[in-house]
Amino acid sequence: MPSAPTIAAIRFGTGLRPRRAGPAPAPVDAAALLAELQAPDVLAARFPVLTRPEAEEMARQVRPARRAGQAGTERGDPAPELAYRALRQRLRFATARGAQMAIARAVEAEIGFRERLVQFWSDHFATRPRNAALGPMSQVFAEEAIRPHLAGGFPAMLKAAATHPMMLVYLDQNVSVGPNSRAGRKGGGLNENLAREMLELHTLGVGGGYVQADVRQLALLLTGLSWTYRAGWHFDASRAEPGAETVLGEAYGGAAPAQVSEIHAALEDLALHPDTGRHLARKLAVHFTSDDPDAGMVESMAAAYAASGGALLPVYAAMLAHPAAWQTFGAKARQPLDFLVAALRALGVSGERVAALDPGGVNNRLLAPLRLMGQPFAAPPGPDGWPEAAGEWITPLGLAARIEWAMTAPRHWAKPLPDPRRLLRAALDDAAGERLAWAVGRAETGAEGAGLILASPDFNRR
To answer: What is the sign, positive or negative, of the torsion defined by CA atoms of 160, 166, 171, 174?
Structure first.
């Protein structure tokens, strides 16, 4: 079994990396993981992404530019169509830049527990852009709805994520209309997507204490939440269903259409429901420790959630304090993004170097490999996010892509390549198995040694 600092860096962080100049760092332990979360978020400022106004302004330009391009083509003027294509190119670059900055943060992080939690909660509230115009909004969502709440309370995170433009558009909430609202009497219909995922995925979980009537009532309560290219985020009272809605036995609203405050009250109650605490505790334990986590650890985490009123830091602390969190090392497979980041760290790549890549380099060195490995950045297959089971990732196609990357990419990222024995120490420390150490010691070239290490089961599991 590896040492606790090695487990902490690999299982709960973004991976080991070569020793840097200066005094030896303190061992990574539970206290260090929690301290990273409570420290100022310097990486967000160091590797910035677009703000919401910037992303909205780009999105707002798309429809007029497309119409102008079509009109220009009809009259034989190519300039508007060229301008529209240039705008789409800027959107693609901005979307890729957001992914680039997220990867740079994970590569540069001292430990990486914060960055791993950003990935976890972004996947818990899974979204993906409906079109190119909303591509840059992916990182805005993580920046606004997830990152500020990692060490705070889940109720605040739920309210921020569930009502964010990215979520409203992804789950069609922006077209949901209360049947008895002013707009509903003229046409349009109720959409239950957000309400259903909120209960089934975001809060109580599958098998939680809700029924279809709760889904519909919550959907009626949510009417009015909207985002459009022109108006941005707003509450449209003309679409909101009048009267009170009852969700899990609690009534919200009254004779008038619901207000945002009533929606927030319902979300607060859902966040503090006992089923929500149990669902979140198990999901965190599955992500970080095992596909079949220790029941006692999950129970301890759920109890911490309930006792703290939905605070997340005590839940993480309960997980890290339980012996099971430090056992069964290797039970989890590194997902492609985790693999890529950990490999770059092991090779000694800095966040600044990742951030300095030009658009072509971002695609060729970061985004295309992730797509080939089966995990395109910020594009989960559905509202339930990426699968957790190791067997979903350790597949013939996925492994082939990882091996190909491991055998070729290090020569670009590390010049000259480190001695394979030093790379083995940097990548795995005392988590390296004897067979891998033996094979690496006999590697004929640095490239062969690097490929053996990064493609090994030792490196691809945590």
So the answer is: positive
User: What value does the mean pLDDT take over residues 272-298?
Assistant: 97
pLDDT confidence band for 226 (50 / 70 / 90): very high
Q: Are 346 and 338 in contact (CB under 8 A)?
A: no
Please state, in angstroms and rounded to a whole number, the distance separating the CA atoms of residues 170 and 268.
22
Give bridge partners of residue 234 from the DSSP assignment. Answer: 226
pLDDT digits (tens, 9 = 90+) for 153-204: 999 999 999 999 999 999 999 999 999 999 888 877 999 999 999 999 999 9
Burial class (CB in 10 A: 0-12, 13-18, 19+), 39: exposed
By the 10 Å C-beta count (0-12 exposed, 13-18 middle, 19+ buried), 327 is classed as middle
Q: Domain limits of the chain? A: 168-260, 336-460
- Of 369, 382, 381, 377, which is closest to residue 409 (Cα–Cα)? 369
Separation between Cα atoms, residue 30 and residue 27, nearest integer Å:
10
Long-range contacts from 367-374, C-beta under 8 angstroms, 24+ separation: 367/96, 367/99, 369/336, 369/340, 369/401, 369/405, 369/409, 370/336, 370/337, 370/340, 372/401, 372/404, 372/405, 373/336, 373/339, 373/340, 373/398, 373/401, 373/402, 373/405, 374/336, 374/398, 374/401
Query: How many residues appear in the chain?
Result: 462
In terms of pTM, does the model score above 0.90?
yes
Q: Indicate the Cα dihedral angle 270, 191, 188, 129, nearest 10°.
A: 110
Rounded (5°) CA angle 31-22-342: 60
Sign of CA dihedral 312, 315, 320, 321: positive
Indicate the pLDDT class of residue 19, thresholds 50, 70 and 90: confident
Q: Return phi, psi of residue 34, to 5°.
A: -70, -35
Backbone angles phi, psi at 226, to 5 degrees: -155, 160
